[in-house]
Automatic annotation (TrEMBL):
PROSITE patterns: SUMT_1, SUMT_2. This is Precorrin-4 C(11)-methyltransferase. Pathway: Cofactor biosynthesis; adenosylcobalamin biosynthesis. The gene is cobM. GO terms for molecular function: precorrin-4 C11-methyltransferase activity. Coiled coil: none annotated. Residues 2-209 form the Tetrapyrrole methylase domain. Belongs to the precorrin methyltransferase family. GO terms for biological process: cobalamin biosynthetic process; methylation. SUPFAM superfamilies: Tetrapyrrole methylase. The lineage of its organism: Bacteria, Bacillati, Actinomycetota, Actinomycetes, Kitasatosporales. The keyword Transferase applies.
Length: 249
């Protein structure tokens, strides 16, 4: 058997990849986070599949489900919201599977920051304005941030910052970024990206905390801060420049 870590996407059930949907439909065990994965996706599982909501399970209990499925010879669809490559806690699960000698594969999904950019109708990298995107979060009750990855340090780059798991700490985010980005820097918060109740908040860095608190946003949101969010006057990219030599790779 194989455990398939599947990126379920940011919320909308139809944003799962074709490969992810096909794999989900073939697995007779599905582990999913009930608070994050849309219920519509579970309808893709086989009628006789064992469905396990992992919202209240710790790592040991999740590992036991993997081992049980392995003993039964049943493939497992392990659904993770967004994409498994960032803030998904798949690394520790993979480590357990390696120790147990259980095979696994990873199927990527649409990450939350991409869904947020789509909701904002913005390209996050704009020629001559910004070509770097930093995905990060803030230290809180969860795992602390490694040394050198605090907002004050990352903010010195001036790159577009995308913060996950930080909406509850919006005041702190703003306070730490203001010295580096300035009060007039464009900022946005996208909550429930791609879902029917999606909420998009736009403003300046000086305004965004008030807008976020007024809207009552505390979770399932992405914070974006950077000049590319409002870039209008910028040079066209070299990609489609008529002067470009298209015979040179």
């Amino acid at each position: 058997m194989t455990v398939y870590f599947i990126g379920a996407g940011p919320g909308a059930a139809d944003l799962i990849t074709l490969r992810g949907a096909r794999t989900l439909a073939s697995c007779r065990v599905c582990l999913y986070a009930g608070s994050l994965v849309p219920a519509d996706l579970l309808a893709e599982c086989p009628p006789d599949a064992r469905l396990v909501d992992t919202a209240d399970l710790d790592l040991d209990a999740i590992t036991e489900e993997f081992v049980r499925a392995h003993e039964e010879g049943r493939d497992v669809a392990r659904l993770h919201s967004g994409d498994p490559s960032v803030f998904s806690a798949v690394a520790e699960q993979m480590r357990r599977l390696d120790a147990a000698g259980i095979a696994y594969e990873v199927i990527p999904g649409v990450p939350a920051f991409a869904a947020a950019a789509a909701a904002l109708k913005r390209e996050l990298t704009v020629p001559t304005v910004g070509q770097t995107v930093i995905l990060t979060r803030v230290a809180q009750q969860a795992t602390p941030m490694p040394e050198g990855e605090d907002l004050a340090t990352l903010g010195r780059s001036g790159a577009l910052l995308v913060l996950h798991l930080a909406a509850r700490h919006i005041d702190r985010v703003v306070a730490e970024l203001l010295p580096h980005y300035g009060p007039d820097c464009p900022a946005a918060v996208v909550a429930m990206a791609s879902r029917p109740d999606e909420l998009v908040l736009r403003g300046t860095l000086d305004e965004i905390a008030g807008l976020t608190k007024e809207a009552g946003v505390v979770r399932t949101a992405v914070i974006l801060v950077g000049r590319t969010l409002a870039a209008a006057r910028f040079r066209d990219s070299h990609l489609y420049d008529p002067a470009r030599d298209r015979h040179v790779c």
